[in-house]
Write a structure and sequence with these properties.
Length: 253
């Protein structure tokens, strides 16, 4: 059985963050370990606040997990500030963990800033087998938001220089509706199929934890991304309208 460590934020709706990651890993039949870096206050209508978890607690939790489990993959989500980013970077380097997938979370769909330390976040990229930015995140890292498939490919090449082994550019919001994977030599392109009329909350979280899970199961990176894409498409098609705002992603196998 594969064990996937998730280091991310807590979202009480469970549509995004740690619980969405854990649901994903669970329905894919593997074991998820979860360490919270921040506790957010939010519902389907948006994020109201975010409270950073004390570094001492994160450290203690990680120490226990590292000494008890043999970890097969890591998914990094929301890291609220530079102190947390740097601390997680140190820990990951010390433990030489396999298959690190970083979802470089910066802002919620409705605008709330979830990470206030994007420069520090970039320094973690060399640890990653894959980073999964969306177009808004690319704008923060590169200063320009890609507007076409060609620009997405250019952005992936530029982001590669920050040191991650591979980049998945998520272009679901573009007319071309494609996702682009660049591993330093080849491009792989997936059409984004079904869309929902309302935004779906937590899609980036579910996708990146599904990729980490498939990598932990031993799939190659393009295979893992391809299977995770199918999985997130189902989670979007089956998204739940349970609150007054965005739909909630609904991972199921
Ligand atoms: N809350 C947490 C804890 C998250 O990790 C994320 C995204 O990664 C969000 C909220 C934002 O989700 P959305 O982009 O669907 O608004």
């Amino acid at each position: 059985m594969a064990i996937i460590l998730v280091i991310a934020g807590f979202d009480p709706t469970g549509g995004a963050g740690l619980q969405a990651d854990l649901k994903t890993i669970t329905v894919l039949g593997e074991v998820g370990l979860t360490v919270a870096t921040a506790l957010t206050v939010q519902d389907t209508q948006g994020v109201e606040a975010s409270y950073v978890v004390e570094k001492k607690i994160v450290k203690q939790q990680l120490d226990r997990l590292f000494s008890d489990f043999s970890i097969d993959a890591v998914k990094i989500g929301m890291l609220p500030n530079a102190e947390m980013v740097n601390f997680i970077g140190e820990r990951l380097s010390q433990h030489h963990l396999p298959h690190i997938v970083i979802d470089p979370v910066i802002r919620a769909k409705k605008g709330f800033i979830l990470n206030k330390a994007t420069e520090a976040l970039v320094k973690l990229f060399p640890l990653a087998e894959l980073i999964t930015p969306n177009l808004d995140e690319i704008e923060v890292f590169l200063g320009k938001k890609p507007e076409s498939l060609e620009e997405m490919k250019e952005a992936a090449k530029k982001l590669k220089n920050f040191g991650a082994k591979a980049i998945l550019v998520k272009g679901g919001e573009l007319k071309t509706a494609t996702d682009v994977l660049f591993d330093g030599s080849d491009f792989y392109i997936w059409e984004v199929t079904k869309r929902q009329l309302k935004p779906v909350h937590g899609t980036g979280c579910v996708l990146s934890s599904a990729i980490a899970t498939f990598l932990a199961k031993g799939l190659s990176l393009p295979e893992a991304v391809g299977k995770a894409k199918k999985f997130i498409t189902l989670a979007i098609e089956g998204a739940l309208s349970v609150g007054k705002g965005n739909l909630l992603s609904h991972p199921y196998a």
